[in-house]
Task: structure prediction
Amino acid sequence: MRGEALVQAPSVKLSFDDLDLPGLVVQRHRHFDALLERARVLPPLTVAVVAPEEPNSLGGALLAAEHHLITPIFVGDRTRIEAAAREIGRSITQVEIVDTSWHIAAANKAVDLIAAGRAQALMKGHLHTDDLLRAALRKDNGLRRGRRLTHVFVMDVPGLTHPLLVTDAAINITPDLMTKVDIVQNAIDLAVSLGIPEPKVGILSAVETVNPAIPSSVDAALLSKMAERGQIKGGIVDGPLAMDNALDLKAARTKGISSVVAGQAEVLVVPGLDAGNMLAKQLTYISKAEGAGLVMGAKVPIIMTSRADGEKARLASCAVAAVHHARVSSNTVAELAQQ
Result:
């Protein structure tokens, strides 16, 4: 590694014990930088942004629009949206606003825009996730396409040579086996869109051997066999794997695990929402990762950002949606041409 460091000398004499010496943390998110460059050459994704009625959600959408990642349509209470714009000192005169007072009505109106072909993706603003997903899952002109909706974090972890996908950390609380099948398949589909041709998927448990007393280890083994038999397609799936031997080759070899996935997993499938949420936040706050969030399994990408997200994470979430939409759309066009 090469670079330049600016060091400011202290104005008074300081002394430290060895254990108290300040550390150096390199925060470089090259995977997201590359992703943003890849997304910028694509046409902006038209996104129905639901209830961007406070500064964070509004600012994130406007930031993505400035970087030519999305063309937003704001769906929500016009008065609150304009007040949020004034609070952050931004003009929204060039943005279409669909004035809708109630959040549930706004979510349904946004889904209407997608059904009418006016928007290509959905983005969560300042409303409850349940209200947004309930509209997406409605029976009439909804966004269902035969799979469970699942959430995927795309993490850019400093030091890792590839993006790391973590799923499901936000929607499915205690998924059963068939829900996990959709969780795995959705994550594989997204990883392929991000440029990983055959994603290596590690199914996490507390142990790397099957133990009937630990249900997640049994599910992991079943998912691995289902992928082997073609019931899950597009990736290499292995489990159960513990966290250490999923990501660290030395740990995998020490425990005698011979696997293409062990030590090299690009997708981590967690046993349940508790584990996934804790893992994603540990990567963010301890490992200094940035995380982009996307809901998969619907007809269109659903962008999920958090109020705690920084600018890079907000942009990356929109970039992930744009890149995935571009691949899926091109595949659909190719399939139609072959018919």
Notes: Residues 311-338 form the longest helix (28 residues). The mean pLDDT is 91.
